[in-house]
User: Which sequence fits this backbone?
């Protein structure tokens, strides 16, 4: 997918809660007061989880309930897990996650 197509698809989304770099296209955060929220949570929560498993999720399967745009699913994949299943009740979030995973080559 080329840059113009990525930008077009990013722009179609009503609102983004997470900031992603999609091949140089940054997703716009709808609430600027929460722009670093996911990075803060990653440091607080996910880094501890990784430490519990020796620094990697290799060999693990992850279930991401309420996955939104797939931030935690992507983080789990980037941390080496074998598979991720993300579930969200809103089609908008599922569409966002599908775009993120497509651009990141995770599909």
Assistant:
């Amino acid at each position: 997918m080329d840059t113009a197509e990525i930008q077009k698809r990013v722009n179609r989304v009503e609102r983004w809660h997470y900031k992603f770099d999609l091949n140089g296209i940054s997703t716009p955060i709808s609430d600027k007061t929460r722009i670093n929220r996911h990075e803060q949570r990653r440091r607080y929560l996910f880094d501890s989880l990784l430490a519990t498993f020796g620094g990697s999720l290799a060999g693990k399967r992850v279930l991401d309930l309420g996955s939104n745009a797939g931030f935690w699913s992507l983080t789990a994949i980037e941390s080496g897990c074998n598979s991720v299943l993300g579930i969200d009740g809103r089609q908008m979030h599922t569409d966002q996650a599908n775009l993120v995973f497509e651009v990141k080559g995770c599909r």
User: Anything to note?
Assistant: The chain has a mean pLDDT of 92.
